[in-house]
Amino acid sequence: MESVREHMRECPSESEIAQVVLQELEQRGNCTMEELIHNLPEYSWNQVFTAVDRLSREGALMVKYSSRVDLYLLSAAQARSGNPRQAAPQEQAGNGL
Question: What is the pLDDT of residue 80?
Answer without folding.
Answer: 43
